[in-house]
């Protein structure tokens, strides 16, 4: 995060915001700057990628599902807008520790090819380390002592849209993000790789709420995608993983997605439309069926 803060200081904070007498390494100044940068960055990532996903990936026929709530999209957005600033408070404290030199982040790549091998290894270990911790944290949040007050707000959205991706209770959102912050305090990681991964995991969080249930056939046994996570929202006790199905399989919480078995939410919507057609005038049925065929793309 010091890379982002350095750019922000050089181009904005130092020339236009803070007095020249206030040093850039002041802990108070760094805290204020991080709060600004973190919130602006979070909102920008959320609205840019969730909006793209909503308009170009999300199957809008899912909005006809009986468990899709009235005004759900606006409610998801409003909840996220309220929650993100609160999530940023503890997050900034960890970013501050990174900037003050307490992490194992580094910025010099080692001699090739060993430097590149180390870099690739750190990406793989980051993904598996964070996936493992998120699995246990997420499953723990489903415990009856924690669920009602912390995790339940995210499960309001039974058929989520990309805008539900960050609609968490602030404690829930921060706790599930902890593995991303813990990793660079335990393992060496290049600063640019860390920043890139941090952006990508936020995009991934949006993608598993995007209602596009397609997964390449070869990856279906391994990748925890939108089909898996939508079933988690619908059926509660399954598919806690973030990227992979590994820990769900080990922990006995894996459920083959209903979308893969022809009984997912899109199939349900299609069945509803067909039943409605059977009781309607043939011309209306044909028109509705054409619209349904144009919008159904996932299974």
Automatic annotation (TrEMBL):
Species classification: Eukaryota, Metazoa, Chordata, Craniata, Vertebrata
Matching Pfam families: FA_hydroxylase (PF04116)
Record-annotated membrane-spanning stretches: 32-58, 79-99, 119-138
Main subcellular localisation: membrane
GO molecular function, one term: iron ion binding
Record bears the keyword rRNA-binding: no
Keywords: Lipid biosynthesis, Lipid metabolism, Membrane, Steroid biosynthesis, Steroid metabolism, Sterol biosynthesis, Sterol metabolism, Transmembrane, Transmembrane helix
Protein name: Lathosterol oxidase
GO CC term (a single one): membrane
Cofactor(s), by name: Fe cation
Domain Fatty acid hydroxylase: 124-252
GO biological process, one term: sterol biosynthetic process
Region: Disordered, residue numbers: 280-299
Annotated compartments: Membrane
């Amino acid at each position: 995060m010091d890379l982002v803060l350095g750019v922000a200081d050089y181009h904005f904070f130092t020339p236009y915001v803070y007095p020249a007498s206030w040093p850039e390494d002041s802990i108070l100044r760094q805290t204020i700057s991080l709060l600004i940068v973190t919130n602006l960055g979070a909102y920008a990532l959320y609205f840019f990628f969730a909006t793209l996903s909503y308009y170009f990936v999300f199957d809008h026929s899912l909005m006809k599902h009986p468990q899709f709530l009235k005004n759900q999209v606006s409610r998801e957005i409003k909840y996220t807008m309220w929650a993100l600033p609160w999530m940023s408070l503890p997050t900034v404290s960890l970013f501050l520790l990174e900037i003050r030199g307490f992490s194992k982040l580094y910025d010099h790549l080692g001699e090739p090819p060993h430097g590149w091998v180390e870099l690739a290894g750190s990406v793989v270990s980051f993904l598996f380390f964070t996936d493992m911790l998120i699995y246990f944290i997420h499953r723990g949040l489903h415990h009856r002592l924690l669920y009602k007050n912390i995790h339940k707000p995210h499960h309001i959205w039974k058929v989520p849209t990309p805008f539900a991706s960050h609609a968490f209770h602030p404690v829930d959102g921060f706790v599930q993000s902890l593995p991303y912050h813990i990793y660079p305090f335990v393992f060496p990681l290049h600063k640019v790789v860390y920043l890139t991964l941090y952006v990508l995991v936020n995009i991934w969080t949006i993608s598993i709420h995007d209602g596009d249930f397609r997964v390449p056939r070869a990856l279906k046994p391994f990748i925890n995608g939108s089909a898996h996570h939508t079933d988690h929202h619908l059926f509660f006790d399954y598919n806690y993983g973030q990227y992979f199905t590994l820990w769900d399989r080990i922990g006995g919480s894996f459920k083959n997605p209903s979308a893969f078995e022809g009984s997912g939410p899109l199939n349900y919507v299609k069945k509803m439309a067909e039943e409605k057609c059977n009781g309607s005038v043939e011309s209306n049925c044909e028109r509705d069926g054409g619209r349904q065929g144009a919008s159904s793309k996932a299974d």
